[in-house]
Amino acid sequence: MDTPSQIPLDDSVRAVMGELPQPLQQFLASGKVEAVTKLLVEKYRLHLDQGTMLERALILMLLGVESPEEFSTGLEKDLGLSEGTVRALVADVNEQVFVPIRKQLEKEGAGTPDAPQPGTLPGQEQKTPMGVAEAAIMGTASAVADPPPTAHTPPRAEPPPPIPLRPKNAPPLVKEYAVDPYRESVE
pTM higher than 0.70, yes or no? Predict the structure, then answer.
């Protein structure tokens, strides 16, 4: 059952979706966001709740509600990921989401959002601020602002070391107890 708070939210999402470029609308409607998120969750071994928060943040950034800077700081803070992992994750998001959308925009010849609207005279066009998602798609803003250089650079995220196994020629383990001390006798 729809609650009163859901109806205006649905209407506002529809209004924002209508203002987005066509390739971005198609990307959001096609379910590719879920597929990309699933791949990233598997690649970075994120928990289910972290994957859900990643998908939500990605959708908000694509809608232009959240800036790329807020996206990356949110991943670091909300998901509890290291800075190196966030950088790698953002690079993958850029490669798997924004690069294909940018190529689609270039192929369709969409131009920039600041292009004059038909019917306006030169000098009369109204400059509107470019949306964050559109700026990231068009390549006018980086997906993540580079942090200022520091004296200590954190190491890159590496997979954990392998678990040591017993060699095959090792002597057998001696059992300390013949009977389980925590189990009651059946007698």
Answer: no
